[in-house]
Design brief:
There is one protein chain. The protein is an all-alpha fold. It is 68% helix and 0% strand. It contains 31 helices and no strands. α18 runs parallel beside α20 (477-491). The chain is elongated. The termini are far apart. The mean pLDDT is 91.
Length: 700
């Protein structure tokens, strides 16, 4: 066989990946995308100043100023800076990350096969074939779609990309005796490890992974190699001690048999369930039919070694695989490395940490080398059958390309399920009919994304009620679903029904913040300000860190004609605000104005107007502020600005509706309406006079 150039192999591989993912560029936002990106306002930077860039490092959803996956969040912020919420740009970067990960996986496997102590029997062509085939089997495997097509899982894919680049530099560092190049590669290994950690915490498994790599592939007959081994052993011991400390610190071992936080399972139950899930992952990797892949899986929770019956056999199979890999790591290093790499890199997400039980994207990193022994076995069969088994040889040559074509088609097909939020969850509903989430997500789609019709309202409520009968990922999920029924009714303007379900949700879980806040909102919309104030005060007693609570309380207090308290509450909202501080400026401006602090109120109203120059409410409040201070000329100027963007008829209608529009702070309609109407009449008079003068002016 002729020697192939790397380039002639890598370019077709990258083109193949682009081909099977070319239907993903306009896949919309899904599941965890909005809270992490489109509604994570710390990432919505307007310039690339150091202050704004630093801000992106502290952008954990639902938490203020908490350091969280800075590298991933920084890339999301850059995407937002250049394209806002256009998903195309995000998918483009996700695909580039997958391409880089694939490229460095190929380079790493090639380097291992060329320079390790136990794979010298491979010829140059063998190395290229095995590296390319194993990379291809990984890169176009349909299970990877969840890590690539699901935008927020860039956190997982980019962590894996830096992870494999770090391994690559470690392998290069171990190729030769210690020199400057060795030191440089080790430094780069550490740098890319830190970058991987900055994307997602599970990259910490690189520490035991490097020890595994060292034990499987490299000889240690010199002092430098022994020092490296000692460092890796020490680091791995520290890794497991740190994991033990984490478990103690988070009270995971003390409450071993108790439900973990909001999860409906204990540490023990999670540990018992994970071996069966790991075997499911392996089956999905080796038989990745789109019919078996889903954003959500129905999987039985193991409550004991014998319930369900598959629990004990699954544990035994996993243990047998691990023991086999340990025993055979000298004679079959590729196979042993692939098996142990898979299990080591599932330690974080598939043991005691109380994450959801199962997600396909968790296999992106652990499956890196899983197809390495498969590709090596195929290459062995090709070499063995080349001279004596021509028929077998021809069959392999035909089957391998067909296998790759089938994988590519399966990946393309699986990506089609992501075409819309509805199609993704409709697909999940057929595959996980016992899970609450597909019903709940489809209920949300019908409830407030589709056209408002009686049929869609009925469908939404039915789906959400069915979700209540299914298994849920959190103990608070039932309260959330009941609350979502309330939100559907609120969206349709059926406020009495909304109040009923929000109250039921709060009774189900008194600590469920979302429903209590929604209850306060809908009571406000009904004009039931006293009860709404009671609910928002309860929220603030439990959680005084959310600006929206204080903002809503300020609005309620204004409707109760308590402007001094409203101004104080609005001011408290500002330092706690994650989003829309300009809108908070408006509420503060109105509260201060109504409380008699007119100059301060004017300052905040002007700040709000700078962001929303044609907002009718802001301009009306500016007119009110100027009238309260006695500045009729200023009120007239703001009236002219208001009239320049809105017709007088629509403004009069708007002002009458504003009297009972409890969704926003009150406007003194009786005070400002005469000024606006008079300004409009004066403007019409002036315009008529101007036209009349021009018609009789002989100079025209």
């Amino acid at each position: 066989m002729m020697r192939c150039s790397q380039l002639s192999l890598v370019i077709p591989l990258l083109l193949l990946i682009i081909l099977v993912y070319n239907n993903t560029f306009y896949v919309p936002w899904q599941l965890d995308d909005p809270p992490n990106i489109t509604k994570n306002y710390s990432l919505h930077i307007s310039d690339l100043s150091p202050k704004n860039i630093l801000q992106t490092f502290f952008a954990k959803p639902f938490a203020e100023n908490k350091f969280y996956r800075p590298i991933s969040n920084f890339t999301f912020a850059i995407n937002w800076y250049y394209g806002n919420d256009n998903p195309f740009n995000y998918h483009l970067i996700n695909l580039l990350i997958h391409l880089f990960a694939s490229f460095f996986l190929f380079k790493t496997i090639k380097a291992i096969l060329e320079h390790s102590a136990y794979t010298k029997r491979f010829s140059d062509n063998d190395v290229l074939f095995v590296a390319m085939l194993s990379t291809c089997l990984w890169a176009i495997n349909p299970i990877q779609t969840q890590a690539v097509t699901y935008i927020v899982q860039r956190m997982a894919s980019m962590a894996a990309m830096f992870f494999i680049i770090s391994i690559y530099h470690y392998v290069l560092a171990r190729q030769t005796q210690v020199n400057r190049q060795t030191i440089l590669h080790l430094i780069l290994c550490v740098i890319f490890f830190l970058l991987a950690l900055g994307c997602k915490e599970n990259a910490v498994t690189l520490i035991p992974t490097l020890l595994l790599l060292e034990l499987c592939f490299f000889k240690r007959n010199d002092r430098a190699a022994k020092i490296i081994l000692a460092i890796l052993v020490g680091a791995t011991i520290f890794f497991f001690l740190a994991a033990f400390y984490y478990a103690i610190d988070r009270n995971l071992l003390q409450s071993f048999s108790e439900p973990i936080g909001s999860r409906p399972f204990s540490v023990k139950e999670r540990l018992l369930t994970q071996p069966a899930i790991l075997l499911l992952y392996l089956s999905l990797l080796f038989y990745p039919s789109p019919a078996r892949l889903s954003i959500d899986h129905s999987f039985p929770l193991s409550t004991s070694l014998f319930q369900p019956w598959t629990t004990l056999p699954s544990i035994l199979i996993v243990l047998i695989l691990i023991v086999f890999a340990i025993i055979r790591f000298r004679k079959n290093p590729l196979l042993s490395f692939a098996i142990l790499f898979f299990f080591i890199n599932h330690i974080i997400e598939s043991t005691i940490i109380p994450l959801e039980l199962i997600f396909e994207h968790r296999n992106y990193l652990p499956s890196f080398f899983l197809f390495l022994p498969v590709a090596a076995g195929i290459r062995y069969l090709l070499n063995w059958s080349a001279s004596s088994m021509r028929l077998v040889h021809a069959a392999i040559i035909v089957v391998v390309p067909l296998l790759l074509i089938m994988l590519g088609l399966a990946t393309y097909t699986r990506n089609s399920a992501w075409a819309s939020e509805e199609s993704l969850w409709a697909d999940a509903l057929t595959k996980a009919p016992n899970n609450a989430r597909p019903f709940a997500k489809l209920g949300e789609i019908y409830g407030w994304q589709k056209e408002k019709t009686p049929e869609n309202l009925h469908t939404a409520v039915i789906l959400l009620r069915k979700a209540l009968e299914r298994e849920s990922p959190r103990t608070s999920f039932e309260a959330a679903i009941i609350g979502n029924i309330g939100k559907v009714y609120m969206n349709y303007g059926l406020l009495d029904q909304a109040v009923h379900y929000f109250q039921e949700s709060v009774q189900q879980n008194p600590n469920f913040t979302t429903s209590r806040f929604d209850l306060a909102q809908v009571l406000t919309l009904q004009g039931n300000f006293t009860e709404a104030l009671e609910q928002i005060n309860l929220l603030i007693e439990e959680n005084d860190q959310q600006g929206r609570f204080y903002n809503l309380r300020a609005m309620i207090l204004l409707w109760l004609n308590r402007p001094d308290e409203a101004a104080h509450s609005a001011q408290q909202a500002m330092p706690r605000a994650f989003v829309n501080k300009q809108r908070y400026f408006y509420n503060i401006g109105v509260a201060l104005s109504k409380a008699g602090h007119l100059d301060q109120g004017l300052w905040f109203l002007k700040r709000a107007s700078q962001t929303f120059p044609q907002d009718r409410r802001i301009l009306c409040s500016l007119i009110e502020n100027r009238l309260l201070v006695g500045d009729r000329q200023g009120a007239r100027q703001y009236s002219l600005q208001l009239l320049s963007g809105h017709g007088i008829v629509s403004l009069v209608s708007f002002l009458e509706q504003a009297r009972t529009d409890y969704a926003a702070v009150p406007i003194n309609v009786d005070l400002i309406k005469p000024v606006i109407v008079q300004t409009a009449m004066d403007t019409i008079t002036d315009l008529n006079r101007y036209n009349s003068d021009n018609q009789h002016d002989p100079a025209q």
